[in-house]
Amino acid sequence: xxxxxxxxxxxxxxxxxxxxxxxxxxxxxxxxxxxxxxxxxxxxxxxxxxxxxxxxxxxxxxxxxxxxxxxxxxxxxxxxxxxxxxxxxxxxxxxxxxxxxxxxxxxxxxxxxxxxxxxxxxxxxxxxxxxxxxxxxxxxxxxxxxxxxxxxxxxxxxxxxxxxxxxxxxxxxxxxxxxxxxxxxxxxxxxxxxxxxxxxxxxxxxxxxxxxxxxx
Length: 216
Known about the structure:
Oligomer: single chain
Strand content: 5-15%
Helix content: 40-55%
Low-confidence stretches: none
Distance between the termini: 6 Å
Number of helices: 9
CATH architecture: 3-Layer(aba) Sandwich
């Protein structure tokens, strides 16, 4: 039997539903009082792997990719802002907001995992993008956020220049895609079951309660 519940969160740092889903999961874990029984890892998924360095206006991007009208987008953003506020997370949508490339962010999240700071850095990147209007495709921004959680700037820069580190991220993305992950967030429990989308807190509590019986 396992002594912890392993949760892999397949996500992107520019995915609003990913942070909502995580915050709901976090609340479920807290309400159950099982923080010490959880082993959590973030797995890479790029919503826009071919996004150019200059990025793309969020409204234009969503209209082109999903066919959403401006009115639909405004309603969706208002709903996400409300959900975020309920969970203590601030969404700050603005007209000039740009969708950006996140590959460097995922490389640094892999580095942060080795240092035991992956969740902390993930939340810092997400907050920088959604709450602080920062362009997290820019390496100088990423490095500043990384230093905020106590990680080493020089080691991070070396990792960003390392082809093997890039290959590892691409391989992980392919691994999860081969396992059927096509949208995020997808939360995989003990590598055997999964939930896709930002589920209600009670759904996460139900799944976690069932998995507790497998723990020593």
